[in-house]
Write a structure and sequence with these properties.
mainly alpha, about 100 residues, 4 helices, globular, about 60% helix
Length: about 100
């Protein structure tokens, strides 16, 4: 299975019809992981997608929002990230049904 196959299957499972700019998302995740902290990468990409949906989606808006995240991550480099090491998942917030 390729990444594109996974994305197609995931979109079907989530009942959404969207074109995914894999390069944009993967580049952003890489930048955040290197500049902030590895656990910040999936959270950042989730929040990017959520924000894009809240703002009407579309490739132009996604690129604009990704630019904001990337700029924030670039400016974060070197800041203290020890608080991420002790993060625990609140199981009450996770709906697995």
């Amino acid at each position: 299975m390729t990444l594109h196959d996974w994305i197609d299957e995931l979109c079907d499972a989530l009942d959404i019809d969207v074109e995914v700019d894999e390069g944009l998302v993967l580049d952003l995740a890489r930048d955040v992981a290197h500049s902030v902290d590895r656990p910040a990468a999936p959270i950042s990409t989730f929040l990017l997608g959520y924000a894009a949906g809240q703002h009407g989606g579309g490739p132009e808006k996604l690129e604009e929002l990704a630019g904001r995240v990337s700029s924030l991550a670039d400016g974060w480099d070197g800041q203290e990230t020890d608080e991420f090491e002790d993060v625990e998942v609140d199981d009450e917030l996770v709906d697995v049904d």
